[in-house]
Amino acid sequence: MSSKAGYHGVVLSVDLSTGKSQKIPIPPEDFDNFVGGQGLGIKILWDRLKRPGVDALSPENPLLFMPGPFSGLPVPSSSRTCVVTKSPITAPRKSDHSHASTVTYSNMGGFFGPEIRFAGYDGIVITGKAPALSYLVIDDAKVEIRDAGKFKGMRTDAFDRAILEELGDRKFKTVYIGPAGENLVPYSSILHTAGRAAGRGGSGCVMGSKNLKAIAVRGTGQPGVADHAGFLSALEKARKVLNGSAYAKSWAEQGTARGIVGNSKAGTESVRNYREGTFSEAEKIGGEAARRDVWVRDIACYCCPLACKKSGMTRGKYGGVVHDGPEYETGVMLGSNLLISDMAGLLKAITTIDDLGLDQISTGNVIGFLMEAYERGMISRSFLDGIDLKWGSVDATLAMIEKIAAKEGVGALAAEGVRALAWQIGKGSEKFAIHVKGLELAAHNIQANPPRGLSYATASRGACHMSGDSAAMQNRRAMLDSTGMCFFPTFEPALEEPMLSLLSAITGRTFDKAEFEKTGERIFNLEKMFNYREGFRREDDRLPDRFFEDAFTVGPKKGAVLDRDLFETTLTEYYRERGWDPKTSSPEKVKLKELGLDGLSS
Amino acid sequence: MKANDEGGYSRRQFLKGCGLGAGSLVLLGQFGIHSAAWALSGEPVLKMVLVDYSKCTGCRTCETACSASNHPVPVGGKELPGLGNPYYANIRLHNFNPDVDVANVCAMCADTPCVRACRVEPDGETGRRALYRDEATHTIRNDSARCIGCRSCAWACASQRTGTISPNPATGKPERMCTLCGGDPQCVKKCPFSALSYVEVRNNRKFYGQGPEKIAAQLARNWYGTADFGGLK
Predict the structure, then answer these.
(1) Residues near B64 by beta carbon (within 8 Å), at least 6 away in sequence
(2) Is the pLDDT of residue A255 over 50?
(3) Which of A390, B43, B83, B191 maximizes the CB count within 10 A of its CB?
(4) Is B83–A224 a contact, with Cβ atoms under 8 angstroms apart?
(5) Chain B residue at shortest CA distance from A235
(6) How far is it, in rounded angstroms, from Cα A219 to Cα A241?
(7) CB-CB: which of A243, A297, A321 is closest to B192?
């Protein structure tokens, strides 16, 4: 039993350069102040990187796999693993440090985070670089680095089977990169179960830079809790709220894919490289169509009563097994945003992107940008290596996806993202290069949804649709992503009370609503401290010009466009609310003191 | 199973049906009603935890419920359910790529191949080997004091039936026989998707007594048109 209830009290630290691993104790106050998941990940990142400008792809940059205090306990929907590292994608407009970038965090479901806790750790910290492509096996206390040479270049679906065959036991839970990560495409993802991903922010690229193809974990233990009886009673309450509820059933029915039609109707979808908010053919790629033509199963992550993941199959030219999708982000980024309405073609693109280990969102955004630049005659067909990259073309999209993952021809530049493409192409293309701080925007369009614009502009990892539309929401989400619980069940307001009771019973520390938000605020501020130290300022919290200039021309929100003055006013108010200097966005000393972060200042 | 065109019977429903319906449909239809007739026919009625593979989402809540119920812990002088470490669960989720999840649990076999494989001589008084069927609960139990840890029961289960019985890695003594939680299986109760039921079944039912790999292959073929799970058996 560790000194801190609800935790093992240690993370596993592995240095791939030396091949050595050790259990590192975490101070109890770090669990109190940063909880786990994203929060504890940021704290460890801060402690390890004591200076700005460390190259994200250097051996020094730690790659963290962080479950939370809920992980490994049968708390509903507590399946999440937060991957935390320094971003290989983002950059400030100006900085004194050549490799300046933000923190990044990417949160995935499945079974990996709980298994880390079964194996006896509150997290895994990877540093260094293996001399050759390797994979890491963690079997309770036993840790081994093995050669992965024979898996070089293997796509994720095949690798998912191959690694288990090699390990000889399906109980191992695995995460891995595809060819894109091996090739150091900045927006590479880390895959799990062939269809779940820590997609955003380039964690797969960092993993690739460490010559780490995969991690396999198997465990037999479990952390204890502070108040056993209290835990059991809160657990029953949480289950009662969710199990069999209409709320849970609505997630099982269509998952996030419901939003493909819903947001199109609301005018808040990313369509035609964010030019529009409504897609006239959304029904063809929406949840209802998928339920009718594609999906055969509803799939849940660890102990989740929602089952929002879907698998199925398609037939014909693009036919095959579909591990997941369409869901909202993948369906919109590769569908509406590219004007692709062929369901089988869309799913082929989604499946290929996962198979290569790319981030679905950045990939869809990059291809949308190229389609627009091509349509406008800013780039020629030869620039695209002969690919006729027209709106709606599945074959051209598939060809471009392969080029990006291989960094071949035009793919080498496209792999660097829309910011780099716009610099290279020029001709005013920057206006429709849809990124913040270098990270591409996601499937929520903002001309008709200004609060989401604030989320994109101020999120700690660059354009993040999940960060939260206000300071208070950002604080709650940062905290939630530190617990191991998924965001999706928390739309159900009745879950809040049992969720707080569970957290209190596990950790022995009373979490009411205020303490929950306060802890989230501390986490968010530490992320900001990190980013500020790297050189990110107010002028980096900006949105692409398109949103202020190109009003929607179709749909229910026709005419919608963001107002630049209003955005700047909102931003100033946001900084004031945060206790940050409105001129520079620097967190004020008094705020850091209030949050107990003043001692960390550097 | 009959496709009903009028009802707008979709392709997906059809796929689901041919993979899984067999279980619940045949069972609840024929079994519930005809169990009395069965009993008269002299065929034993098996009451077990039955999985509807079309409803199972692979969430593993059943594992945690099983473990919590069967591994209680003393807290303040009272015995309370444990924290549900799935490692100690008697029901186990086997997951495959392409996405198939098979919950594997004791089939309560009437002919008990596991018991028949037990090498310990029957006790003169009770007639029991180390492994035996408890006449009151109908569950398979192991007399740990007499068990020699030879793993014959686990081998019999794996080669002839579901393979649920696992020998303890250290002692070789059998584990993971379903206890039915004293007649109120907690996995059934806690399943968020109503994929489990505690019902009477007949041993000619589709999937009955089969190992997870076999079941997964049949389901995958129906759902995805492939049963290539890679080389791991």
Answers:
(1) A74, A303, B84, B85, B86, B89, B190
(2) yes
(3) B191
(4) yes
(5) B83
(6) 30
(7) A243
Q: Which of A118, A116, A119, A128 is nearest to A83 (CA)?
A: A116
Topology annotation, domain A246-440: 1.10.569
Is the same domain home to B102 and B216?
yes
B80 vs A228: CB contact, 8 Å cut-off? yes
Q: Do B73 and A228 touch (CB under 8 A)?
A: yes
AA identity, residue A570 = T
Residues B98 and B116 both lie in one domain: no
- For the stretch A1-25, pLDDT in tens is 457 999 999 999 999 999 999 999 9
What's the pLDDT band for B34 if we cut at 50, 70, 90? very low
- Reported in sequence order, the residue ranges of A117-249 that DSSP labels E, i.e. its strands, are 124-127, 134-139, 142-147, 173-176, 190-192, 196-198, 212-218
Query: How does A162-189 read in b/e, with b if 16+ C-beta sit within 10 Å?
Result: bbbebbeebbbbbbbbbbbbbbbbbbbb
CB pair distance less than 8 Å for B12 and A298: no
Nearest to A118 among B87, B101, B190 (CB): B87
pLDDT, tens digit, 9 for 90 and up, residues A341-367:
999 999 999 999 999 999 999 999 999
- From CA B218, how far away is CA B213, in angstroms rounded? 9
Say if the Cβ atoms of B83 and A228 lie within 8 Å.
Answer: yes
The beta-carbon neighbor of B75 closest among A76, A157, A229 is: A229
What class does CATH assign to A10-218? alpha beta
Beta strand spans in A256-328 (E): 295-299, 309-314, 320-322
CA A225 to chain centre: 29
ipTM of the complex: 0.97
Domain assignment present for residue B129? The answer is yes
Range with the poorest average pLDDT among A431-440, A556-565, B5-14: B5-14
Q: Are B12 and A304 an interchain contact pair (Cβ–Cβ within 8 Å)?
A: no
Q: Looking at residue A601, what is its pLDDT?
A: 64
Q: Which residue has the tokens 């239809």?
A: B29
- Counted residue by residue, chain A has a size of 602
Residues within 8 A of B (CB atoms), A 270-299 only? 291-299
Q: Which one has a higher pLDDT value, B36 or B114?
A: B114
Share of chain A above pLDDT 70, in %: 99
- Residue B12 has its nearest CB partner, among A168, A220, A292, at A292
Instruction: Give the model confidence (pLDDT) of A206-221 as tens digits.
Output: 999 999 999 999 999 9
Contact A398/B at CB under 8 A: no
Same domain, B36 and B136: no
Judge whether residue B37 has pLDDT over 80.
no
Which helix (H) or strand (E) is A533 found in, with range? Answer: helix A513-534
Specify whether B16 is located in the same domain as B127. no
Which of B56, B224, B233 is the best residue to mutate to test the A interface, defined by the most A CB atoms within 10 Å of its own CB? B224
Residue B59 belongs to domain spanning = 1-108+178-227
Number of cross-chain residue pairs from A and B with Cβ atoms under 8 Å apart: 130
